[in-house]
Amino acid sequence: MFSDSLVEAASTLLEQCKSRGLKITTAESCTGGLLSALITEIAGSSAVFERGFITYSNEAKTELLGVDSELISEDGAVNEMVAVAMACGARQNAKADIAVSITGIAGPGGGSKKKPIGTVCIAVASMRDTKARTFYFSGNRQDIRLQSVQAAISLIDDMLSNGSSYVA
User: Structural domain of residue 57, as residue ranges?
Assistant: First the structure.
């Protein structure tokens, strides 16, 4: 299911985290655990991967990650503020060093003019920094989900590459 290049990128990321003694957690919505599956596909990932939260429903985001239900009701679950709240909640609840969250619209339904299919918000949170970004992916449901996983790996890598000022 995962391309060799995606597995290689995840392996490199895990090695970076392992060498720094960092633990990662995930909070996934539209990817339904796909990022966690990629990470745990790699032998030795238990040294880095703490746990994954699959929070597909809005209630799960609130109950498991502490996302304020009013934040979701204001503009829906697909926005950078919700992604940040998901990542921060996951990091805190898992007691991990880095958390990544993914929330979006993978299709084939559920899109709107304001948030078309392929709109995905991803956030990465560490003790010292939080970054969020909105992506507009194309393709079918599986394409969008895989592109989301790739983007999440890249955002974590960017945070780690920007030096120790971003990560505990």
Answer: 4-161
